[in-house]
Amino acid sequence: MKRPLVKNNLITVPYSPLLNFDRSINYQLPGNQFLSHIKKISAQKEKLKKIGQIMSHDVRQPLACIMGLINAIRDDNYIFDKEMLAMLEKEAHDLDSKIKAIVALTD
């Protein structure tokens, strides 16, 4: 990507669409708006990183426990006791709270 051009306190950012090489689109923003836009994009990128971390570790753990408990119940011909049900309920609530945390990050 070409470097932004600064002229009369306006920053022009050349952008060439990936699938349309014969054209280029230029965006002009005042310098302070450009920096604000970059900061907003950086903050969104950080939120996405946090969501990715939560999804790959925090959400996966209770889901794996739920799946394991379901397999144990299946192996016992779908007979389970109150302890297994309590563990399943605990993991489901844990998964629910992790999903709510992800939703809160997107606000």
The CATH architecture assignment turns out to be Orthogonal Bundle
Range of strand content: 5-15%
**Average pLDDT metric:** 77
Tally of individual domains? 1
The major β-sheet equals:
3 strands, antiparallel
Query: What sort of overall outline do the alpha carbons produce when their principal axes are compared?
Result: rod-shaped
CATH class annotation: Mainly Alpha
Oligomer: single chain
Q: Stretches where pLDDT falls below 50 for ≥5 residues? A: none
Share of helix, binned: 55-70%
Number of strands: 3
Which strand order does the major sheet show? 1-2-3
> What is the helix tally?
2
Question: Any descriptors?
Answer:
107 residues; alpha+beta; Helix Hairpins; three-stranded antiparallel sheet; 2 helices; 3 strands; 65% helix
SSE layout and pairings?
Layout: E1 5-7, E2 10-15, E3 25-30, H1 31-75, H2 82-106
Antiparallel strand pairs: 1-2, 2-3
Helix pairs in contact: 1-2
Short description:
With 107 residues, this protein is of the alpha+beta class. The protein has two helices and three strands, in the order βββαα.
Architecture overview:
The protein has 107 residues and is of the alpha+beta class. It has a single domain, classed as Helix Hairpins. The chain is 65% helix and 14% strand. It has two helices and three strands, in the order βββαα. A three-stranded antiparallel sheet has the order 1-2-3. Strand 1 and strand 2 (10-15) form a beta hairpin. Helix 1 (31-75) packs antiparallel against helix 2 (82-106). The longest helix is centred in the middle third of the chain and has 45 residues, at 31-75.
